[in-house]
ABC-type Fe3+-hydroxamate transport system, periplasmic component
Amino acid sequence: MVPHSSPRNLRRVVVGLTAALLLVSACGTADESAELPDTGFEGDSGAGAAFPVTIEHQYGETEITEPPQRIVTLGINDHDPLLALGVTPMAVHPWVGLDSVGPWAADALGDAEPAVLPGNSDPTPEEVLALAPDLILAVTYSMDEATYDALSELVPTVVRSADHADYAIPWQDHTEVIGDAVGKPDEAAALIEETETLLADTATEHPELAGRTGAALLPNPDGGYWPFTDLDARGQFMTAMGLRLPDELAELDDGAFYIDLSAERMDLLESDVLVILDQGGSEEAAQDDAVFQALDVVERDDVIWLDTEYLGLAMAHNTVLSIPYTIDELLPLIVEKVG
């Protein structure tokens, strides 16, 4: 399950996975001759010289002995850096709300049509293994160790680093590990440098944002809000643009990727700008919330409501492909409010 719908759902495990894996193991591997999207490396990538590569992660290490040709991305945005590196996965597992990759990745995807594992559920092992992958990328995915053990016995599987929580890997580290997995560390480093330069140059071009207060947040359906911290992609984007959480709100940061702000402490949202990800009806509900409407930031109309179809999802992706899109589409709205 993706982290966009609700932070409480982030650690949901795959139901019935162990039994399903036993069934797959008993049946052997999938038919590798099955007709599947013609994906993999484009032409002579030169990546072969990088192999074998060994990637350390939360469950140990994974060795990839040769350039993978049949990559399945389970991580909700693992396909973005992969596509940016010129490598097309044979199957993707996109965020809820996306039928495939986001519009920010459309050019990199080109005419390729990878299989899509629906984002509103966790794919079963049968679904994954039936694609006969030779590499599974699950860096931005919450995979329990039993699932990893079962999958990695059949296919090299790369999960997140032990240095980060689920869905909290910085985009730089994310790009780096994907680059290592496909034998393109130098190209990944170049993408990181290019994107960091873009962020820095953009922040420099907008000194009016430096030191101003703001938050990206998600409404809590039970009341209150979930402002994102720097551990979250949305919080990272705000910080990169020079914005910071209001001091009293930041004091509630206990190291998680969001702050569970009760309705009673909604006053802590007072800031120069709020970016709120609307989850179907959230904005309408806020219009009926007298406490929320009484906030100065609301009375000044310095609240940006984002639908989660594209722009909210782009902000949450925070990849080398989505960051330029977010800058182009969201930043002008923030500047208009804060400037």
